[in-house]
């Protein structure tokens, strides 16, 4: 009797059900650095604010690789791995065979559906070298679980959809959501109906107005460091939305992508996907991934402290409330829903604004930097070396180097030595020395994690803090290992999550493994992260 009673008590102590949530809502906010979110948090009372208040909130997640960019950030969130495993090192890479800059998801064998394919543009996940959360969900459910990913950027939607989901992104040439032949041979009826609504066209002739009274915005609307007339929308509120056109077209669609109207389009597309694909309607887990890109467009153009950035966050806060409500309805309530939110990177202030505030900030022109390095290599080796700088990557080429006329290792090391001595640089290292270079400053390890052979540069360097590499004379950028670029929030909410504020620093590679645990399935094959056990209830 005692043994039987003990066995019964053990059974009663076990979870009543290991059923996974019906729907996972995976939200990425492009360029939402931790500092940006923390500064604006008191004004967030909608969906974003509620997630922070009711979820497991980690303000201090830090990417462990050096080059904080959109494509590698989304690939890392999707795979739980760093670029040295998933192979996506930047938004653009240098194709040594053609001498062109190409996008990391370029695939000439797959074309856009419903749009015009640019030969070097992103169209498929073929170049993603690691399994994604979406792929693992498909395998674990034996093909029954559905995944839809939506974004304004292909390089965001593609990794979130993986190889077996659906990826949809906004085409600035047509003003429609498009996909490629990798994912489907025909646009489904629900997306056809959504595109027929022409939401981007509907904004033509409108203005981007402030959501709140002007007194609630911090700083100045018209900052001297902002561009003179970005996208022909004006420097100050209200912003024109027509791009200087008489009727909707590519220029007005680009303005649309900068504005918070882009958030509304993605929410409406998400609602269409929930209904059209029946996401969350049965006990087989599905996933809806939405990456909001308008925040990044506003950041690059106006900077993280601008009124435009403040207003786009306030409007995103509203949009997320509508999105979460739709997801809860589709899943039959919050008890059947898991939500994750994070960001692909943060970002620097406009360097001229930093300089005005007394920071040692400089705008670095990669074209001029490349010219200086090419002159140094010609003087040292007596040959012409083609030099291409792309963020932290330095690509070297030319006939003399490629034919073996000179020692490639010697040239790469000389380039690294010259870069290391420049006033804008902290250090530089040739790819040949990545595994052996001393790491007294802790910067070689992030460069290693971001390096993938044949895609990364021949030489990698790190600029000093507040040095912004950009070939544009205005606006700002991101892509360094400093906190303002690599520190992002992570939030989990819904079924199986223990709410709270978690101040320990984590790595975004933990996002996919944590969602795997909540979905009661294995992790993506190449994942380096781990489930955040402290935020999981086990129920």
From TrEMBL:
TM ranges: none
Keyword flag S-adenosyl-L-methionine: no
Keywords: Metal-binding, Phosphoprotein, Signal
A Pfam match: Phosphodiest
The organism's place on the tree of life at top rank: Bacteria
InterPro entries: Alkaline_phosphatase_core_sf, Alkaline_phosphatase_prok, Phosphodiest/P_Trfase
Annotated protein name in UniProt: Alkaline phosphatase family protein
């Amino acid at each position: 009797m005692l043994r039987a009673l003990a066995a019964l008590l053990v059974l009663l102590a076990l979870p009543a059900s290991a059923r996974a949530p019906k729907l996972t809502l995976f939200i990425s906010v492009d360029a939402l650095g931790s500092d940006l979110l923390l500064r604006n948090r008191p004004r967030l009372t909608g969906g974003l604010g509620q997630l922070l208040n009711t979820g497991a909130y980690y303000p201090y997640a830090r990417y462990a690789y050096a080059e904080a960019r959109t494509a590698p950030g989304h690939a890392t969130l999707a795979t739980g791995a760093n670029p040295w495993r998933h192979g996506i090192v930047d938004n653009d890479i240098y194709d040594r065979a053609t001498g062109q800059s190409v996008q990391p998801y370029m695939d000439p064998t797959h074309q856009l559906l419903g749009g015009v394919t640019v030969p070097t543009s992103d169209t498929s996940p073929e170049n993603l070298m690691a399994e994604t959360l979406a792929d693992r969900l498909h395998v674990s459910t034996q093909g029954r679980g559905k995944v839809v990913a939506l974004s304004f950027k292909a390089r965001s939607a593609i990794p979130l959809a993986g190889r077996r989901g659906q990826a949809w992104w906004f085409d600035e040439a047509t003003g429609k959501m498009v996909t490629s032949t990798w994912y489907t041979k025909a646009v489904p009826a629900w997306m056809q109906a959504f595109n027929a609504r022409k939401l981007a066209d509907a904004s033509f002739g409108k203005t981007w107005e402030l959501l709140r009274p002007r007194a609630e915005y911090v700083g100045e609307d018209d900052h001297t460091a902002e561009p003179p007339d970005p996208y022909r929308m004006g420097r100050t509120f209200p912003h024109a939305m027509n791009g200087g056109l008489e009727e909707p077209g590519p220029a007005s669609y680009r303005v649309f992508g900068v504005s918070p109207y882009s958030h509304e389009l993605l929410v409406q597309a998400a609602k269409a996907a929930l209904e059209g694909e029946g996401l969350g309607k049965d006990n087989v887990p599905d996933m809806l991934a939405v990456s909001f890109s308008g925040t990044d467009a506003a950041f690059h153009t106006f900077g993280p402290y601008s009124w435009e950035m403040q207003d786009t966050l306030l409007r995103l806060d509203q949009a997320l409330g509508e999105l979460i409500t739709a997801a809860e309805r589709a899943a039959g309530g919050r008890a059947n829903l898991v939500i994750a939110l994070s960001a692909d990177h943060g970002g620097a202030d406009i360097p001229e604004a930093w300089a005005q505030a007394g920071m040692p900030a400089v705008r670095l022109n990669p074209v001029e930097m490349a010219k200086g390095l090419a002159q140094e290599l010609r003087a040292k080796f007596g040959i012409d070396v083609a030099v291409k700088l792309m963020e932290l990557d330095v690509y070297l080429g030319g006939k003399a180097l490629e034919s073996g006329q000179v020692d490639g290792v010697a040239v790469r090391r000389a380039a690294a030595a010259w870069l290391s001595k420049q006033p804008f640089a902290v250090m530089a290292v040739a790819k040949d020395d990545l595994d052996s270079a001393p790491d007294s400053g802790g910067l070689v390890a992030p460069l290693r994690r971001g390096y993938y052979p044949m895609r990364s540069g021949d030489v990698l360097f790190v600029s000093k803090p507040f040095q912004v590499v950009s070939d544009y004379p205005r606006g700002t950028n991101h892509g360094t290992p400093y906190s303002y670029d690599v520190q992002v929030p992570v939030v989990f909410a819904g079924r199986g999550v223990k709410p709270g504020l978690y101040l320990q620093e984590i790595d975004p590679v933990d996002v996919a493994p944590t969602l795997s645990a909540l979905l009661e399935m294995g992790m993506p094959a190449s994942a380096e992260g781990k489930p955040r056990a402290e935020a999981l209830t086990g129920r």
